[in-house]
Amino acid sequence: MITKFAKNSEVKMIVEEKQIATNQFKRFLSKKGIFSLVSGAETLANQTYQIFLGSADIEYLQDVMQTSNSYQKSSMIVLNPNSDYEKLDEFIDEISDNIQENRLSNSKYKIENIHKDVDGNLNVKMSYTKRIKGKTELIKNRTKEVEIKIMQLSDEKKLAIDIRQNDNTDIKEIESFIKEINSDDSKLFEVEKITLDKLTSKNKINLFDKLIKSDYSKWTLEDIKGIDVQRSDKSDIDDDNFDEDGEIVSQDELIGIKTAVFKGSSIRDTGIVKKFEKQGFYFISMRFMYTVKETMESFIIDINFKGTDDIKIDIVKNFEKDEKNKDLAVVFPKSQQEEIICEFQSNVYKIYKDLIDSQQKKSIAKA
Description:
- By secondary structure, the chain is α+β, with helices and mostly antiparallel strands.
- It has ten helices and twelve strands.
- It has helices at 8-16, 22-30, 41-48, 55-63, 88-103, 168-181, 201-213, 251-262, 271-278, 334-366, and strands spanning 73-81, 110-116, 122-131, 141-152, 159-164, 189-193, 219-231, 247-248, 281-292, 298-304, 312-321, 327-330.
- Strands 1, 2, 3, 4, 5, 6, 7, 8, 9, 10, 11 and 12 form a twelve-stranded antiparallel sheet that branches.
- β4 (141-152) and β5 form a beta hairpin.
- α1 (8-16) packs antiparallel against α3.
- The longest helix is centred in the last third of the chain and has 33 residues, at 334-366.
């Protein structure tokens, strides 16, 4: 929300310094019936900065500025209620009450805002202070803000917490916050992590295989930009040499996997993946590039389990085509990124749950 008038000189500076991609700003102007033929950022800024922009325009420009926090990063945790609820709204309301009570306590977590949206999801904006090592007294404490959404899972009697974090430390802080609001006196739920540890070796590969084969109404898979793998048995790896972010698959190996993917084959059938399995490696991250069908824009999304046990779904880059059909880095509006994240969260969880269910059925059949 815009609460302060933005001067035209500030908009000019943003365009000149390419904090907004030049082509993206020109496209923004064209939607308002203003067409510019210049190509340089400075010339464009001088030509257009006197145009009056309303609050909605400024809010859009803020969304698409290229900063370290331009791209949405997310994680998911599932909450399984300890009581039966006729409606999940009652479960959400109890969690909301506990958060409000915690708001009055001497907690390190400060609730900046809490409200229900039109879909019945509980939105919470919280902050906490993080101590930065090696900094002077003046700047050693840094306030961080995290947004979470507690939402219903379709066809499930469970809730999911959608966490929008800046880095992995935010996830750990959210887990600590969840423990606070789920005290022993009022144990409302059990926490279920979406983690590769719950999948068999075969299904750790199947998860990514099914993600590759997923169809989306608005996006088409264009490329796989990178894959990271990790050893199943870490007992023979020195702690000093262990990398929690895994090992990057070489370009030659990646080309072999991509060749199988775009031929419609399963990645399990490739000699490279068979070699990984034989050596005890499994995928912990895959970066997909998708094209937006209607606009020919594109984005790279990383689905990974690196660093922590929790799944992370992060938008890495956004692109649009220039006049020569080359990819130019831009930033999609927050609403467009939100749609992408939510769609991938839903699909990843469905695939993951189906694999867990199939494992349980096989386990029961053997018993």
